[in-house]
């Protein structure tokens, strides 16, 4: 019954933009911190962004800071990731994940940290 469903991925040229969505259901959305990860085959999963329900500022990885913007619509139980000025190195499967916490923390992105819920991902491909 719990679902996180990502959408919005696709093929885009370098310098272009995409907006990813993560629709949540089956749990109390505003009790959770929502995050975005990305993963390239053969590489470690990378934390991209984090957003809370009005508890502190969003978090961005240095690799995307200034280019990506995370937002949420609590009425729709949906989290977004607006990705601008895309680079080929942004190519990855992007996942959203939820953890029942109050504040963003880089601890969520470390090896072995257990998120509560994961989506199945959406593929973003950025061509040169």
Return the structural class.
mainly beta
Mean of residue pLDDT values: 96
User: DSSP strand (E) fraction?
Assistant: over 45%
Ends distance: 40 Å
What is the chain-wise order of helices and strands?
EEEEEEEEEEE
Largest sheet: 7 strands, mixed
Uncertain spans: none
Instruction: State the shape.
Output: globular
**Helix share, percent:** under 10%
What's the gyration radius in Å? 14 Å
Give the helix tally: 0
Would you count the extended β strands for me?
11
Written description of the protein model:
- The chain is mainly β.
- Helix content is 0%, strand content 47%.
- It contains no helices and 11 strands.
- Strands 2, 4, 5, 6, 9, 10 and 11 form a 7-stranded mixed beta sheet that branches. The chain has a 4-stranded antiparallel beta sheet with strand order 1-3-8-7, with no helix packed on it.
- A hairpin with a 7-residue loop joins β5 and β6.
- The radius of gyration is 14 Å and the shape is globular.
- The model has no long low-confidence stretch (mean pLDDT 96).
């Amino acid at each position: 019954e719990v679902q996180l469903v990502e959408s919005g991925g696709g093929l885009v040229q370098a310098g272009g933009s995409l907006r990813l969505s993560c629709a949540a259901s089956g749990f109390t959305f505003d009790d959770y911190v929502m995050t975005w990860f990305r993963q390239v085959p053969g590489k470690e999963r990378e934390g991209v962004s984090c957003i809370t329900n009005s508890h502190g500022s969003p978090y961005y990885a240095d690799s995307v800071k200034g280019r990506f913007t995370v937002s949420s619509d609590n009425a729709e139980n949906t989290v977004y990731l607006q990705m601008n000025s895309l680079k080929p190195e942004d190519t990855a499967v992007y996942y959203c994940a939820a953890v029942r916490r109050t504040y963003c923390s880089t601890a969520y992105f470390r090896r072995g940290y257990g998120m509560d819920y994961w989506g199945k991902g959406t593929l973003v491909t950025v061509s040169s």
